[in-house]
Amino acid sequence: MTIDLDLTAHEHAANLRAGEYTSRALTEATLARIHAQDASLNAYITFTDDLALAEADAADARIAAGDAGPLTGVPVAVKDLLSTKGIQTTAASKMLEGFVPIVDCTVVQRLKDAGAVIVGKTNLDEFAMGSSTEHSAFGATHNPWALDRVPGGSSGGSAATVASRGVPLSLGTDTGGSIRQPAALCGIVGLKPTYGRVSRFGVVAFASSLEQVGPFARDAEDAAHLLGAIAGDDVMDSTTVPVPVPDYTERFDRGLQGLRVAVPEAFFGDGLDADVRESIERAIEDLAAQGAIIDRSVALPAASAALPVYYIIAPSEASANLARYDGVKYGFSVTDGRSVEDEMAQSRGRGFGAEVKRRIMLGTYALSAGYYDAYYLKAQRVRTLIKREFEAAFATHDVILTPTSPSVAFRLGEKVDDPYAMYLNDLYTIPVNIAGNPAISIPCGMSQGLPVGMQLIGRPFEESTLLGAAHAYGQVTDWHRQAPPALG
Q1: What is the pLDDT of residue 488?
Q2: Chain Cα centroid distance, residue 353
Q3: What pLDDT, in 10s, does the model give residues 406-429?
Q4: What pLDDT is attached to residue 444?
Q5: Could you give the number of structural domains in the chain?
Q6: Residue 428 in contact with residue 402, Cβ under 8 Å?
Q7: Looking at residue 107, which CATH number applies to its domain?
Q8: Active site includes 121?
Q9: Running DSSP on this structure, what letter comes out for residue 166?
Q10: How far apart are the first and last CA of the chain?
Q11: Is 154 considered catalytic here?
Q12: Which is the catalytic residue, given 93, 132, 178, 441?
């Protein structure tokens, strides 16, 4: 039989439980599609066909035994920043050449526990440092809506394969917008959970106080189920918080009536493309028509400092985290140097890409003697101000609404040589990571034949509110149902 791969994860799950087809059949069809698409997209670094088919057979046995959850038998792709036992994990870097973890990271283990089928490891900007998935040792990923455009980054491969209907679900990581921005540019749903909501154990570290693992999906229901599978306290990660994991669909029946929405004008200033603004304004009208209460009087003045704060804190943490890559214990190594010190320097010089080197140098400078107080310490103080502004806004509002990205997907190569122009793509997403709040990007329009994303920001650990609002918005619009041209 022919399986409709355009279905959502929850539609596949229902069909699997009803016996309309098996997980093995679904997995075989999915693998065939993502292999065919990848000649155009370059969304994957590693395919895991043998693992996927074995997991599919195990899922079919669970379904036959009546032990099926919402992800059992459903194909999922994971960003190649997440450690996978027995499968290479590269972080899209030559530096991790040949690195094969001996354990799964916590979120991958939780996917397996839920019965999901892992079909591959997706492409990204090297060590998650980038906004376009062009900074990869394995080549750039392409946007399925227009192959000459970027998919966003750093989780561009995860976004592109979901948008192209290759897989219904994927996992990414978000340090400054790396789930939400590619979700917006690819026209899908992307959620950054509250800091501490999802374990980072086994995730290759970039900036430890900012990053979170989160879901990509084509609608809010699928995102809710995927988040539910991976969220929760973890004894292996001391930054996780022991807050109970709810049913993230619990607010799907509440609609938008009475939802208090703050719309800060600071996020609608210079740099926002006119056509993106127009789509966001129409979305605000749609929300208001469904009973949401729109308030444009909220000011978040310190949020304007989030970009420079981020580019002090994140590179500083990166310079410390990446110091472990010395060419000695694992990964890429130069062995013909003049001395141990020379081999270490050459390993790092040839193993890291240009953007990673740039951020290591920025961070090392900010942490160096004589500059720590002037840069890093001051950035942490401003971080506190930003967090307090969010807390004040949420005292009287349920969500904050902003654009996700200032523009639609830009052309490959357009900004790769201009770091500042590239960094501005995360202008609206970075404040959320600085504050630690959850946020979701949902499709809300099209411009130039390319998707536009709207960001909703919530209170800490209130992902249910964001998912409920996203679901309600999706009931009165069809932007999340729009699909790019077929690729295979």
Answers
A1: 64
A2: 21
A3: 999 999 999 999 998 999 999 999
A4: 98
A5: 1
A6: yes
A7: 3.90.1300.10
A8: no
A9: S
A10: 18
A11: yes
A12: 178
